[in-house]
Amino acid sequence: MNHLRFLHYLDEVARVGSIRQAAERLHIAPSAINRRILDLEAELGTPLFERLPRGMRLTAAGELFVHYIRSRAAHLEQVRSEIEDLRGLRRGNVRIIVSQAAAGTFLPERIAGFKSKHPLVDFQVQVGDYSRALDSLRSFESDLALIFHLDPETDILRLDELVQPLCLVMHRDHPLAAQQGPVRLRQCMEYPLALPTRDIAGRQLLDSFLANRSIKLRPAIESNSFEFLLGYLRYEHALTFQIEIGASHGHRDLVSRRIADKGFPSANLVLACLQGRQLPVIAYAFAEYIKSTMGASNRANPPAEK
Q1: Across residues 277-296, what is the average pLDDT?
Q2: Which residues, at least 6 apart from 68, have a Cβ–Cβ distance to it below 8 Å?
Q3: CA-to-CA distance for 28 and 235, rounded, in angstroms?
Q4: pLDDT tens digit string along 242-276?
Q5: Which among 194, 204, 231 has a CA at the least distance from the CA of 131?
Q6: Alpha helices in the chain (DSSP H)
Q7: Contact at 8 Å (CB) between 104 and 122?
Q8: CA–CA separation, 284 vs 6, rounded Å?
Q9: CA separation (Å) from 11 to 5, 7, 39, 57, 68?
Q10: Smallest Cα–Cα separation from 170: which of 256, 298, 58?
Q11: Which of 48, 98, 124, 294 could hold 146 in an S-S bridge, CB 3.0 to 4.6 Å?
């Protein structure tokens, strides 16, 4: 299948925008990659790249051809998975992109549970935001996505979803931690806030809820890293907001409380794939495994202190 390897060369140049960088990543000579690109352009009768002073940029024809390469590679992986399935080995590779909030415990638990039954399966996991996840599905970089607050997309298939409330998170020594039960937002105004940046789904839900209300929450700290925000709570009586399943997992000194204000938002954790794409057998099996455990997640994570 040498021709597939040559197509992979072109795909790698498209991803990094440079023949030299692609050659370094593929451990081959830049001249070999350039020669294969020139051969393909001659065969197709059109340039696939614009050769710029600082790199390579796909032409319109190049974008079409790269989409063909990636869809063909995805189909080949699916066929390989089916062949392995026929042999009863259940081996293969699952590629999934996940939101930060589900990356701490939710997804690792499910991968570990799946691998206990299928130890020969490998996983490639990326952590990315909403737009990165959609791009990854559409470019065939990922088989599955596990993301929050997915708006309807005509080319994205929702396989399952789990409703998750937005919770208040604090250190267990925080004054509000002594309060049992939900907390009102007005109580939060007395303390510093460490909030996600505005491109994070949880922050967008919070801002939308507060838009027409008299309560204004002004962050003292903003970050796109949930680990940073949760870590900071150890050093000041600050508060943050997080989806429930990611609120304090792995942080024994943190607690979470639900918000008492009527209509406070929730978000859906959505398992998704590209519409119309036939998943590799092992990726489909993992998706079914996640679906079988989603309902149990709410029972395992009650709204009280974690």
Answers
A1: 85
A2: none
A3: 49
A4: 888 877 566 778 999 999 999 998 888 999 999 98
A5: 204
A6: 2-16, 19-26, 30-44, 60-86, 100-103, 106-117, 130-138, 185-188, 201-210, 226-232, 281-300
A7: no
A8: 28
A9: 10, 6, 15, 12, 10
A10: 256
A11: 98
